[in-house]
Amino acid sequence: MAKDKEPGNWATEQAAIGAVLLASSTLLPELADTLRPEHFHRPAHKYLWSILLDLWNEGTPPDLIIVLDEIERRGREWVEKVGGIAYVSALPQACASVDNGALYAGRVRDDAARRALRTHLTRLQERIENGASAADLAPDLARYGLEDRKSTRLNSSHQIISYAVFCLKKK
């Protein structure tokens, strides 16, 4: 599966981070416990979100100036990890509306969930193709509500997984 086809909208990620840079005192109390660095698809955004959370957890509401200072304090390696000072400086402009910050964050989480599900379904598909039994797959299928509730027959579950993987590959 091509990496560029994975669910993830960089513009939405930029908007979520930009909204927090503009209104961290309003948004971070709501988002700090629900949006994690690993939810972001672009590595630079993962690093930026970790900086925002670190500052917040230290009691410093992170605005653009505070974040830029923190990036520079961490050194050249971090400047590169986050995409550069100019990139970070432009993120507040990527936010169309601070009022939608929580919505942007929700979309970032949704994209992360779709990436995780795609990965899991692909692994299940590979296990099925390699001869895994229904009993072997049952815990994984139940995790996503894909089990055949009337029986433990592999056929029904295999069809559901195959269809889900097919749909994910089309997108």
Q: Descriptors for this entry?
A:
171 residues, mainly alpha, 8 helices, 0% strand
Order of helices and strands: HHHHHHHH
Q: Mean pLDDT, rounded to whole units?
A: 85
Secondary structure: number of strands: 0
Number of helices: 8
Outline the structure in words.
The chain has 171 residues and is an all-alpha fold. Helices cover 68% and strands 0% of the residues. It has 8 helices and no strands. The chain has helices spanning 10-31, 43-57, 64-74, 76-81, 85-90, 101-129, 134-143, 154-170. The longest helix has 29 residues, at 101-129. The termini are close together. Mean pLDDT is 85; it is low at 149-155.
Give a quick precis of the structure.
By secondary structure, the protein is mostly helical. The chain is built from eight helices and no strands.
Q: Secondary-structure blueprint of this entry?
A:
Elements: H1 10-31, H2 43-57, H3 64-74, H4 76-81, H5 85-90, H6 101-129, H7 134-143, H8 154-170
Helix pairs in contact: 1-2, 1-6, 6-8
